[in-house]
Amino acid sequence: MTSGIVNGRERFKQHLRKVGSGEHTSKGMSREEAADALHLMLDGVASPAQIGAFLIAHRIRRPEPQELTGMLDTYRRLGPVLTSAEGQRPPLCFGMPFDGRTRTAPIYPLTTLVLLACGQPVVLQGGNRIPIKYGVTAIDLFRILGLDLAGLSIATVQEGFEQTGFALIHQPDHFAIAESLIGYREELGKRPPVASLELLWTPHQGNHLLVSGFVHPPTESRAWEALKLAGETNLLTVKGLEGGTDLPIGRACITARVQQGQAERLILHPRDHGCHAADVEWSDETAWTEKALAALDNRGPLLDALRWNAGAYLWFSGLSDSLESGLQTADGVLKTGQALQCLDQLRSWRSHLSIR
């Protein structure tokens, strides 16, 4: 065992003592300490026993904003990077749980296609099905729509982003070092603090609107503070379906726009815009595919949810000057088949890669 590993494990032991000393004596780590702790875990310097103890202790105590910022620093330093081409609109970068969806039908792949048809770039990220939910993920949903985005190099994703305005960062392909912590989710049976980090991180560097899902109000306020420390100046937080960024149509939508550190609460009512209905449940891939393609063809049970989400995000992105205008634009895109055309164009782009 090298002295570097010994020193690293001793250093990690100090971080572990801070988060695992009990309710009355545990202390928050500094931003720099949290960044170092995550780096030591990802590099495999910390032992499995240390990593498991840290993750569960940190979950019980709850990460503090500066700790999340430090972890985000490590993700930014070690993870993949995307940049926009000169003159490209700032993208919408969506942060949602990496362990997927199991209860409600996802809307975000369809919203993405409407946004792309309107000229609004989109960045998504995620992985394969992982603990604790093993829910359906972005890579799955696009695959069953006929768009296989697995196995692409980061250079190819960057090239595609510049050409099409769309990028999907797939963790196994583009951030393999982060895969090393997935097994701990299964062993612990709980989402570790890195799951909160996944909602805050985006591989895109530069001007963008970061959209982050949340479930509980304390999670949202921590995200505001952590991202403020990280220098994110344009943020939208969404109490979406299953902690993601899909806006519900079965209830009021609780969102907040944070610009230059100032938060403005926005509560949207789908009922006021003719989009109110029960949120469609997830059943299986076959049923979802039929409903998804129908919605892109301006019909079926997912149409209201797609219209609502696409219209709202067109407004949030600044492509529409009001929510009502965004909904009208989404209507037009769906009625004229432009979203389906966009899907065909992405399929063609992917097919071209296979024969180059």
TrEMBL record:
Protein name: Glutamine amidotransferase-phosphoribosyl anthranilate transferase
Top-level taxon: Bacteria
Limits of the Glycosyl transferase family 3 N-terminal domain: 14-78
Domain Glycosyl transferase family intervals: 111-340
Pfam family, one: Glycos_transf_3
EC number: 2.4.2.18
Statement: the UniProt record of this protein carries the keyword Glycosyltransferase: yes
Keywords: Amino-acid biosynthesis, Aromatic amino acid biosynthesis, Glutamine amidotransferase, Glycosyltransferase, Transferase
Record-level GO BP terms: L-tryptophan biosynthetic process
GO MF, any single term: anthranilate phosphoribosyltransferase activity
Region feature Disordered, mapped onto this chain: 1-29
Basic and acidic residues bias: start-end ranges: 20-29
Gene Ontology CC: one annotated term: cytosol
